[in-house]
Amino acid sequence: MRSGFRKALWFLGLWAAGVLSLAVVGLVIRAMVL
Length: 34
Description:
Strand content: under 5%
Radius of gyration: 15 Å
Helix content: over 70%
Number of helices: 1
Largest sheet: none
Mean pLDDT: 94
């Protein structure tokens, strides 16, 4: 594997984790508001 491929995988993993965490926070806030 090339270093660029691993870097791309790391970037995709961090992006996915950020999106999931944002979705969870949004759901928690919505649950608290309702």
